[in-house]
Design a protein that fits this description.
The protein has 8 helices and 3 strands; from the N terminus they run E-E-H-H-E-H-H-H-H-H-H. The chain is mainly alpha-helical.
């Protein structure tokens, strides 16, 4: 299992990549060193996003704008990236998640941690903080992470001690204060907004107004809570998913 790091922080691994790359590898006879693999995936992603934009524009009745170039930035230095291989499948030689009794569940949690780290550490280097796309990515990662952890706890698949339990309990309180008894989840996961948004007052741009209307809370306060909670979850998962 290959793990990719940014300034020493794991943000992706080949377990995640294999979900998306398996069909592409077949085009190169499973040769991951084939130089065609990168351009194939890039071109596919570009065409796919173009199709999605075309379909959505057709439904809306007008051409939807693409993200503005000046809203994107690449403030990334190659030397900050590193990678390391670990042995996961061969029990006799395994050198990852050695303190875990259930390596498969630990890998699942490690994937969550990578998602959280990517959202907080990498995305800000590419998309400006005040862009709705970045907010949406963070909210989706936050929602998915908390709901997954909640599910694992209910099924006794998440290791808890007193400290961890207190942190998770507080995160769940924050989470419910944002997502409970409203349509926020549906609005951020789907491209068509719920009809109740017609009642909202457009004080800021649409996305910010929508979040404030659905939650009845200040937008900046919400995102401070979300980002603080994501940092706490990373710390908890760091301890559980230690690579050695």
């Amino acid at each position: 299992m290959g793990v990719y790091f940014y300034k020493g922080v794991a943000f992706a691994n080949t377990s995640q990549l294999s979900i998306y790359q398996d069909m592409f590898r077949k085009m190169t006879n499973n040769d991951i060193t084939d130089s065609r693999l990168g351009p194939i995936i890039r071109d596919f992603s570009e065409i796919q996003s173009s199709y999605i934009n075309s379909f959505a524009s057709q439904i809306e009745g007008n051409l939807l704008p693409k993200i503005e170039f000046e809203k994107c930035k690449v403030n990334i230095i190659d030397s900050n990236f590193s990678e390391k291989d670990f042995i996961f499948s061969n029990e006799a030689k395994r050198n990852v998640f050695m303190s875990s009794d259930d390596k498969n569940s630990t890998l699942y949690l490690f994937n969550l941690k990578c998602q959280l780290s990517f959202s907080l550490k990498i995305i800000p280097l590419i998309i400006e903080r005040n862009h709705a796309l970045r907010f949406r990515i963070e909210m989706i990662v936050y929602y998915q992470s908390v709901k997954t952890i909640e599910f694992l706890i209910k099924n006794n698949k998440f290791p808890l001690n007193n400290t961890t339990k207190e942190i998770i309990d507080n995160v769940l309180i924050d989470f419910n204060s944002i997502f409970l008894n409203n349509n926020l989840r549906s609005n951020i996961y789907h491209y068509r907004f719920s009809e109740d948004n017609a009642q909202m007052e457009m004080i800021n741009d649409f996305f910010i107004s929508m979040v404030e209307f659905q939650t009845q809370q200040n937008f900046n306060d919400i995102f401070n809570i979300i980002e603080n909670d994501m940092e706490k979850l990373i710390e908890v998962l760091d301890e559980i998913t230690s690579l050695i």
